[in-house]
Design goal:
Blueprint: E1 5-6, H1 31-42, E2 45-49, E3 66-69, E4 73-76, H2 79-86, H3 92-103, H4 113-118
Parallel strand pairs: 1-4
Antiparallel strand pairs: 2-3, 3-4
Helix pairs in contact: 1-2, 1-3
Length: 124
């Protein structure tokens, strides 16, 4: 497995070296693209959990306690909240990666024949 690139961690008093989330706000970001990115982030797999909730730097809500990955990036569970609710736009490299991954899956690629064939006999 390739190394994962850490994204979505923000500056705090405990971690002053991280970027400031407020510098990433883009209120002009296309709503459809923003929703695609947030939805993608919400469906990644969970490699592990943390010991407590993180807090949103904008609104203060509890913002998750797991980390997520799609195999390229590793981010905190709450990153989709920043994208969806506060207009935090991720760097173009990440957005483009997500849009490319989403474009690779189309309805015409979904085949149901195997499932339809096996479903009636699932107990045998």
């Amino acid at each position: 497995m390739n190394a994962l690139t850490l994204i979505g961690y923000w500056r705090s008093t405990e971690e002053p070296e991280w970027p400031d989330s407020r510098n990433f706000v883009d209120n002009a970001w296309d709503d459809t693209e923003r929703d695609i990115v947030a939805s993608y982030l919400e469906t990644e797999s969970v490699p592990w959990v943390q010991m407590g909730y993180s807090e949103c730097h904008f609104c203060g809500r509890e913002n998750g306690y797991v980390e997520l990955t799609g195999g390229t990036y590793l981010c905190p569970e709450g990153l989709s909240h920043y994208v969806r609710e506060h207009g935090v736009r991720l760097p173009a490299r990440i957005v483009n990666h997500i849009l490319e991954r989403e474009a690779q899956i189309t309805p015409d690629q979904v085949k149901s024949a195997w499932w339809e064939a096996v479903a009636p006999d699932w107990r045998t």
